Structure formats: C-alpha cells, structure tokens
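Hey,
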Amino acid sequence: MRQYQTKAELIQTIQDTFQKYITEFEEIPEEWRHQHHDEVDKSPSENLSYQLGWLHLLLDWEAQEKNGVAVQTPAAGYKWNQLGALYEQFYQRYGQLSLKEQQQQLTQLVEELCQWISTLSDTELFEPGQRKWATTKAQWPLYKWIHINSVAPFTNFRTKIRKWKRLVMA
C-alpha cells in the first residue's frame, strides 16, 4: 500500500486519481448505465454506487464517533464477511440515480473527504489508534483507511470501467 508523507500529498493523490476515474463516465450513455458484460463485474452504475457507498460509510464512521456514537463497521447490520450484501445495498440505494447524479454526488463526497482530511492533525492521520472505528488488529492509521476507500478503488475501478467501455461501447 502506498505511503504518504503529508496530508497535502494524500489529498492531491485522491484528487488526481478521482479526476482520472470520474472522466471515464462522461461518454457513457445514460441508457447503458445498468448494462453488464461477462468480463467486467460491475455495470457503470454499480461501479459508481460502490464508490458512493464506501465514501459515505467512511465519512459516516467519523461523524458518528465525533457524536459519541459507537460505530459498527463496516455498517449497521453487516459484518466484514457480508460485503456482497452490503454492495447490493449500495447498488439499490444509488442505482436509482442517473449517472450524472451519481457523478455529482461522488464529486461532492470527494470534496468532503478532502476537507475532512485537511482538518486532521499529522498524528490523527498517520499514527494508529486515533479513532475507535479505525482500531483493528492491523492497527492501521487513518490514512490507510482513507487510501483503501478512495485512491485504491479509483485506480482499480478506472481500469474496470475502461475495459467495460472497450467491450460494450466498441
């Protein structure tokens, strides 16, 4: 997993990978948003829904803890071995939106994420044990949770949506 030296570097990486990711959706016709292909595991709408779901969860974990609420990860009613069902919830919740609406919401969430990161101290961002929701056996600092829910999927899912476009839109 990538290491970051500063919060500015993390924010810039999030913004850069997000921009590359989100532009992939510009030329996809709305009527194809739910189109599947056997060689790609998600439709364009599911791809965006996944991103929306995880960023909402990440920001919600932080908000809940700030409000003194005990956070259940990954989400209330779900355990880590039930991620498939959680993803289905994402697809149902956000799949009703148009691609444009999904893109707008995701852009807003990325802005909120970067704003939140900018408020964190270096200790909060780079040292483990700073949030109850982020304290696991792995002892990850917050930046790793942020990376795995933003930079990593923006990068990996960009490859998937590009493959989908080659196969479906060719």
